[in-house]
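Sample entry was shown:

___
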Amino acid sequence: MDSISYFILSLLLSSSFLHSSLPSAFSTEIPHSEREALEIIIGGGGAPSPPANCPPPPPSLSQRLLKARKVLLNFKATIEDPNCFTSNWQKDVSPCNYTGIKCATYPNSKELAVAGLDFNQAGFSGRQGSKLCLSGILENIPELTFFHVNSNNFSGQIPTEIMKFPFFFELDLSNNKLQGYFPMEVLSNSQLLFLDLRFNSLTGPIPPKLFTMDLDVIFINNNKFSSNLPWNFGNTPARYLTFANNKFTGPIPSSIGKASKTLTEVLFLGNQFSGCLPYEIGLLKKATVFDVSSNLLTGPIPESFACLQKIQFLNLAKNKFYGSVPESVCKLPGIRNNGNLTLAGNYFTYVGPECKKLIASKVLDVRQNCIKGLPNQKSPQECYKFLSCVKHCPNEWSLKVVPCEKGYSEYEETASPPTAPVTYESLKPTRHRLM
């Protein structure tokens, strides 16, 4: 190594020399031609040195992030983005800084990875009128834990790969263009907790296996699902169920009582359910919302409803229920404590003093029934026509069963003030998240 090389090496290793000795060294020890060359190498004749307080360069991206960024940029090239949702998706930017992308440290690794995609209300559609398929993005980011795409134009099948991802637990495909039968791919995911398929055009029956999955939330309202609910419906551990506004038929399965330890809110409204209500509904000791309005249900209210100590919103409106409104239901603490009991549009014939108190306080709605002495009731002719040919319930013996009557301590709980029901938010197509 020649003398100039050694001198340059010593300069690079000595910060004190660089800041204090360079001028004298240049003037006394280095020939003019060599000094010019050294100034160029060190920076005297080229670009200025960065200031001392310049931040360190950003860390290099992990292989997981590099791969995910490529997938996301390829996806961006296939979509119409009317709201400029992906405007900051650039090739020289970390995907963790992209709009709608959530990153986290991958388990058992120190690497950052794309953990979630939140495209809610982005309004994506396929470029130049092409279909916007779920494949192409979902199956290529195996680190995903959730995928939320409420209010876009996705169609096609769910890639089977996504159901094999080790940490995937939330799928929200609501308010899109999904058609066909229930996506069976969902059933192969053992860790899925949140399933939202509402506001699509899905048809056909619901597979029984759905109710054996360890789901916490099932929202399938506002589709075109039909047929009876599976016999094992009550096996679900879900807390929140919305089956509203489909084409379900047949009775409410008596197995619903098996969901007593978890079921909190359930919406059956806007279907074609028929038959009488099973007494097992009264076993739902944690239920705060129960809505079967706008169906073809009939029969009296089961006496077991007296056991719904936490119920706050009970809606049986627009069916063919008849008989007396049980006083025990009008005494329920959750109803009386600013809750709501809606029985309008049926054929009830009698309310007692406790129920009349709720009518006066506008907690109980009994309009368009057959209750003598109350305003806004059906005509006597309509009431007579229906009540003269009432068909009795096949489970009539059970409608007098009150499972909490004989000192069941598990039912003796004071209801808390009502909060806004979670499930009713699912009836809005552009809802972001429920919880």
